[in-house]
Structure formats: structure tokens, C-alpha cells
Amino acid sequence: MTKPIKVALAGAGAFGIKHLDGIKNIEGVEVVSLVSRELEKTREIAAKYGIGHVTTELAESLALKAVDAVILCTPTQMHAAQTLACLRAGKHVQVEIPLCDVLNDGEEVAQLAAQSGLVAMCGHTRRFNPSHQYVHKEVTAAASTSSKWTCRPTFSGAAT
């Protein structure tokens, strides 16, 4: 039997809860630390999911030796800096999209991840959304037949 993966989750809002609901169904993965802005609310969520460590500071979770990986479900503006902090702390990291709002920040994450040998990945669950799958299928089909796509912006429902 392999050793369980111990995870810290940052961001106990709607997306964080979705991750917690999913993780409880995955054998061999355990959330051991929960990070969020409001301590009392975070404690309530941690109690519901059986998470032993609660904090409002990501650095506190990153200092835990037990933590192998971090899932970031925080606001976009925090993603790149928090991903870098996770990597610098020696933790694998999964971050919700988008990775960054400034290209250079994303490039810095990619460079550090490559240098560290740690996994740094973005969650792209929208690929399972039927509308996204339809667009992917159409783009792939158009690319294979060399046809060009044209798009016309619409305003107030009327084509221009």
C-alpha cells in the first residue's frame, strides 16, 4: 500500500467545498489543513470534513511537515504568488484557473516548477462541460479540414 497524500486546501469558499467533497471520495488522499480568511467559518468547515488543522495563513500550512501538496482555491490575484510559495516550501500544488493575471508571473511559476521537480498544475475541469466539449469538437473538426472559423461580435442579440 502506498503512503496517503496529505493535502492542505486554501480557500474554503464554493470551489474549496467542491474539492473537499471530491477528495472525500478518493482513497489515499487526506486533507490535513484548511486555510481560509474567516477563522470561525473555516473551523466549522474543517469540523464537517474531519480536518485537524485550521488557519488563516497559508505559510502556517506550508510549514507543516505532514503536508505533501496544496490545492489553491483562492482569488485569482493570489494564485501566482501562492503557487510560488508552495513550490518554495517544497510542496506540490494544484491551483484553480487562471494560474495568473500577469504573464510574467505565470512564466516564473513554470520556471520554478521545472527547476524544483515538483508538480504545479492548473485545474481545468471545464473540459468536462458539454458546451466546452462541443466547441473543442468543432475546432478540432475545422482544423482537420483546414476550414477557417469566423466570429462576428454580437451586441444586444443582433449580429453586426
Structure report:
It is a single chain. The chain is built from six helices and eight strands. With 160 residues, the chain is an alpha/beta fold. Mean pLDDT is 89; it is low at 151-160. The protein has helices spanning 14-23, 39-49, 58-62, 76-88, 103-116, 130-144; strands at residues 5-10, 29-35, 53-55, 69-72, 92-96, 120-123, 154-155, 158-159. Helix 4 runs parallel beside helix 5. It is globular. The chain starts with a strand and ends with a strand.
Secondary-structure map:
Elements: E1 5-10, H1 14-23, E2 29-35, H2 39-49, E3 53-55, H3 58-62, E4 69-72, H4 76-88, E5 92-96, H5 103-116, E6 120-123, H6 130-144, E7 154-155, E8 158-159
Parallel strand pairs: 1-2, 1-4, 2-3, 4-5, 5-6
Antiparallel strand pairs: 7-8
Helix pairs in contact: 4-5
Feature tags:
single chain, 160 residues, alpha/beta, six-stranded parallel beta sheet, 6 helices, 8 strands, 21% strand, globular
Brief overview:
With 160 residues, the protein is of the alpha/beta class. It contains six helices and eight strands.
Helix fraction bin: 40-55%
Low-pLDDT windows of residues? 151-160
Q: What order do the strands of the largest sheet run in, or round the barrel if closed? A: 3-2-1-4-5-6
Shape: globular
Sketch the major β-sheet: 6 strands, parallel
Let me know the number of strands: 8
Rounded mean pLDDT score: 89
Round the Cα radius of gyration to an integer and report it.
19 Å
Structural class call reads: alpha/beta
Q: What is the ordering of alpha helices and beta strands?
A: EHEHEHEHEHEHEE
Total helix count?
A: 6
- The end-to-end distance, rounded to whole angstroms, is 61 Å
Strand content: 15-25%
